[in-house]
Design goal:
By secondary structure, this protein is of the alpha+beta class. It contains twelve helices and four strands; from the N terminus they run βαβααααααααββααα. It has one domain: Glutaredoxin (3-Layer(aba) Sandwich). The chain starts with a strand and ends with a helix.
């Protein structure tokens, strides 16, 4: 059966999520997919799976910066990261919830991504985020108060928990059917899946994944 929807898990704090977002709406239009965005807290994913973020590993932070400049140049995208990074992503993520932005959700997400990653604006302060949305012609009446309510905070917590249950470990993540794609470089693979040409050998994948571990990193550390 042909897929009918695409679930996009993201945090505005990720440049990779910004890059992926630029391709999503055209992809969904081409393949007649319902785009379902899911704001999630990247830091909570890292905590759950026991990972460090790129900004917490200095050489990785440098490598990510170089990659992003190259990727943007190659793909003709504006790239000017947020004024502060990392920053508190919670206000932006709450604004991007369907329960908050309603029918404006895609426009809200687009405005925040572009303000932060194309124009270097601050994405960590709620009032400035409201100004960003207003400049984009989005109705912001009551949104500043709405994102402070516990019920809205709980929705974001639930979105993040649901993502973890789906096996989401990083952003951006795209899920189509039972297939999970991680990163902004997966679109060629996604198109193969959507066109019924996926070369993945499921049986071989299961066989390779079942190979036993020989040793864990902790045991190597202990062998001194």
């Amino acid at each position: 059966m042909r897929p009918t929807q695409l679930d996009f898990y993201f945090d505005f704090i990720s440049p990779y999520a910004y890059f992926a977002w630029q391709k999503l709406e055209p992809l969904c239009e081409e393949y007649q997919l319902e785009l379902r965005p899911h704001p999630v807290v990247f830091g909570k994913l890292l905590d759950h799976w026991g990972q460090l973020g790129p900004a917490e590993v200095p050489p990785k932070k440098e490598a990510v910066g170089r990659y992003c400049l190259r990727y943007a140049a190659i793909n003709g995208l504006e790239y000017n990261p947020p004024k502060y990074h990392p920053y508190n992503p919670l206000p932006s993520l709450r604004l991007a919830l369907k329960e908050v932005s309603g029918d404006q959700q895609l426009s809200v997400i687009d405005a925040i991504f572009n303000a932060g990653w194309a124009h270097g604006e601050d994405l960590g302060e709620a009032q400035h985020l409201i100004e960003i949305l207003q400049r984009a012609g989005i109705d912001t009446k009551g949104l500043d108060e709405l994102i402070t309510q516990q019920s809205v905070k709980d929705v974001l917590i639930k979105e993040t928990s649901n993502a973890i249950e789906q096996g989401v470990f990083g952003v951006p993540t795209i899920i189509i059917g039972d297939q999970l794609f991680w990163g902004n470089d997966q679109f060629d693979h996604i198109k193969l899946l959507l066109e019924g040409k996926d070369p993945l050998d499921g049986q071989k994948h299961k066989l390779l994944q079942s190979r036993p571990r020989m040793i864990d990193r902790k045991k190597i550390r202990d062998q001194k």
